[in-house]
């Protein structure tokens, strides 16, 4: 690994141009998409099923974050934070809650879809609205528990102008790296593995099922792949580049500067933008296309398994009746 004797200055100008444009785009698309999504969910409340509880909370998490974007646009465009330390912490907390709340509810949706398609008969009648509400409460509790420590880190710093950090100042950067790695593993790594396992098994079931129309099967498989890719593209770069950027900041404090320090900073900002885009992508994917299409596959799989179960029960009943009829004769 190559090192420089002096650290090159970071290109903060990229952030001031890139993030405001992303935030404005997400605010417009996210506001429209989530409003239309709420309307669509209201009109199809019964048809969607218990998964709508997770979709509703996913939408609320997105709206919570979207409402903070105008303040961030002003901050990055004016290059100075004007709203105080407490409000800076609240805005960063909202982003953290939205990020890991979205990950949590998207994971719950993937598990429910998995159970509905792969284990149709086993979960029939067992997944109730009360159970879904308990899971929602647990998700919110875990998200708040994971996000609250972020409030105790210093977020603002004054040097000619006031900055509002999305992580923390250099004084607490080493402790924040440990906290960030913990959030990455618990809040993102484990949910990612759960989602990959669920959608991977769903894709396998759809590919091996012979009683589903080929075109419908291909569309469902393609949708599962798209959902997994979108989840990965929105969240994987953010977590990787955030932690690497923290490592490079610590290295700089220790007097060791990598040539790619500036590139890592830019990559981290791109990761922030991708994570933010999730609030605009969620309504487009989960409200309008995915549930209707996967529900068709769910019905196909469910009918096949129900018919198989019914034929098995009828066969068993026939076998029980046969000896009695023979005795009567």
Automatic annotation (TrEMBL):
Subcellular location(s) of the protein: Membrane
Q: Which Pfam family is one of this chain's hits?
A: 7tm_1
**Bilayer-spanning residue ranges:** 20-42, 54-78, 90-115, 127-148, 185-208, 220-241
Domain of life (superkingdom): Eukaryota
Q: Which GO terms describe its molecular function?
A: neuropeptide receptor activity
Q: Which residues form the G-protein coupled receptors family 1 profile domain?
A: 33-286
Q: Kindly give the InterPro entries that the UniProt entry links to this protein.
A: GPCR_Rhodpsn (IPR000276), GPCR_Rhodpsn_7TM (IPR017452), NPS_rcpt (IPR027294)
Give the matching SUPFAM superfamilies. Family A G protein-coupled receptor-like
PANTHER family, per this entry?
G-PROTEIN COUPLED RECEPTORS FAMILY 1 PROFILE DOMAIN-CONTAINING PROTEIN (PTHR24244:SF0), NEUROPEPTIDE S RECEPTOR (PTHR24244)
Protein's name in the database:
P2Y purinoceptor 1
- Recorded source organism is Carassius auratus
